[in-house]
Specification:
With about 375 residues, the protein is mainly alpha-helical. It has 15 helices and no strands. The relative contact order is 0.08.
C-alpha cells in the first residue's frame, strides 16, 4: 500500500498521539492525574485517526474500531480542562456516565459490522460511503452535537474559573491558562472542518481537499499540544480550595466595620501585599479569619475580588515610591511593590491612576518644581 503525502502526515500524527498517550499514562515523571487524562485523550485521538488510515486498506476486520473512540474525545477533553484547573480533581463514579455513548456505539459496531460476514461488511461500508441517512446524518450529527456541548461546558467552566481565580490569588500571570482556551479553539477548528466535510454535500475532489487539510492540521495540533505539555512542561496546577472546618457565621453591621478596619490596619501595618504570591488563604490566616468570611467581606462588603483588593494596595505603595524614591527605576519599584510582571503592573497602575508609572513620576516631579 502506498500512502499519499497527507496520509503520511496523518500516520505521523497517529504514531505521535499513541506514543505520547501511552507515555503520559505510564510515565513515572508525570504523576499528576491530569497527565493520565491527557494520555487517554491522545490515545483515543490516535486511534480515531488510525481508523482513517485503515479504511484506505483492505483490512476490513480492523475498520470501525478506532472510530468508536470518537465518543470519548469530548468527555476526556472536558475532564482534562477540569484536572488542569483543579489539582484535586479526580474521575469519580459520576464521570463514568459520560462513557455511555461509547458503550452504545461499541455495541452497534459489533452487531452491525464485526459480527457480519465479509459481504455484509462490504455492504455496510458501501451504505456508509453512499450516504444513507443513518450514517451520513444521524450518527455524524449526534457526534458533532456531543462535541459542541462539551466545548461549551469547557468554555463555561474556564470562564467561571477565571473569575474565581481572582478571588484566591494576587498573582495570576504565572498561572496563565490562556493556552487552554487556545486548545479549545484548536478542537473547534477540527470540529468546523469535520462539520463542513460531513454536511455540505461536497464533491469528491473538494471532500478530499478537506480531508487533506484535516490531516495537516491534526499533525500541527498534536505537535503543539505535545510541546506545551511534555516539552515546555510549565503547567502550574491550581491547588484545591480549602473547605471551612465549620459553617461560617453570619456577619452583620458593626461587626463588618470592625473586620474591615482590622483588615485595613493589617494591610497598612504589616504590608502582606508586598509578597508577590500572597493568597487569600494566607491573608485570612494573618487576619485570623475564615477564608469564606474574608472572601465574603471583600466581594459583598468592599465590592472587589481579592486580586483587585491586593493590587490596589500595591499600586498605592508604588505611587509612594515613585514620588519619594527618585533613585529607583520603575522596574525596581515594581518588584519592591509586590509585582513580578511589568505588563500586569502597567495595566494595574493605569487602571487606578489613568497614567503610566513614568507619566505619574513626571507629573509628581512637575508638581514640586
Amino acid at each position: 500500500m502506498t500512502l499519499q503525502f497527507t496520509q503520511l502526515l496523518l500516520a505521523i500524527a497517529v504514531f505521535q498521539s499513541i506514543l505520547f498517550g501511552l507515555f503520559a499514562i505510564a510515565g513515572k515523571k508525570y504523576v499528576h492525574r491530569s497527565y493520565a487524562i491527557l494520555g487517554f485523550l491522545l490515545l483515543f485521538q490516535g486511534l480515531v485517526m488510525l481508523d482513517e488510515l485503515v479504511q484506505a486498506t483492505d483490512y476490513r476486520q480492523f475498520m470501525n474500531i478506532g472510530n468508536t473512540f470518537v465518543t470519548l474525545l469530548s468527555p476526556f477533553f472536558y475532564f482534562y480542562v477540569r484536572s488542569v484547573t483543579d489539582a484535586d480533581y479526580r474521575l469519580g463514579k459520576t464521570q463514568w456516565a459520560h462513557g455511555l455513548p461509547f458503550l452504545a456505539i461499541v455495541v452497534y459496531v459489533i452487531v452491525a459490522y464485526h459480527s457480519k460476514t465479509e459481504d455484509e461488511q462490504w455492504q455496510f461500508m458501501s451504505q456508509a460511503w453512499q450516504g444513507d441517512v443513518w450514517h451520513s446524518l444521524i450518527i455524524p450529527l449526534a457526534l458533532h452535537l456531543q462535541f459542541l456541548v462539551y466545548a461549551v461546558l469547557s468554555i463555561r467552566y474556564l470562564t467561571r474559573f477565571n473569575l474565581s481565580f481572582r478571588d484566591r490569588f494576587s498573582q495570576i500571570e504565572t498561572r496563565d491558562l490562556s493556552w487552554l482556551r487556545l486548545l479549545i479553539v484548536g478542537y473547534l477548528v477540527i470540529w468546523i472542518n469535520s462539520f463542513l466535510y460531513n454536511f455540505l454535500g461536497l464533491a469528491i475532489d473538494t471532500a478530499m481537499r478537506f480531508s487533506a487539510v484535516q490531516n495537516v492540521y491534526s499533525l500541527i495540533f498534536i505537535n503543539v499540544l505535545i510541546y506545551k505539555v511534555f516539552i515546555s512542561d510549565k503547567l502550574d496546577f491550581v491547588p484545591p480550595v480549602p473547605q471551612p472546618e465549620k459553617a461560617p457565621a453570619a456577619v452583620y453591621g458593626d461587626q463588618v466595620e470592625r473586620l474591615i478596619g482590622r483588615l485595613r490596619e493589617l494591610m497598612s501595618r504589616d504590608k502582606p501585599f508586598l509578597s508577590p504570591r500572597l493568597t487569600i488563604e494566607e491573608l485570612a490566616q494573618l487576619a485570623d479569619m475564615e477564608v469564606h468570611d474574608l472572601s465574603k467581606l471583600l466581594n459583598d462588603d468592599l465590592g472587589q475580588n481579592f486580586y483587585d483588593f491586593v493590587n490596589r494596595y500595591r499600586i498605592e505603595h508604588s505611587k509612594f515610591l515613585l514620588a519619594v524614591r527618585k533613585d529607583m527605576s520603575v522596574l525596581d519599584l515594581m518588584l519592591e511593590s509586590g509585582f513580578n510582571s511589568k505588563s500586569s503592573f502597567n495595566s494595574a497602575f493605569k487602571k487606578y491612576t489613568a497614567q503610566t508609572p513614568t507619566q505619574f513620576r513626571r507629573t509628581e516631579a512637575e508638581a514640586f518644581e
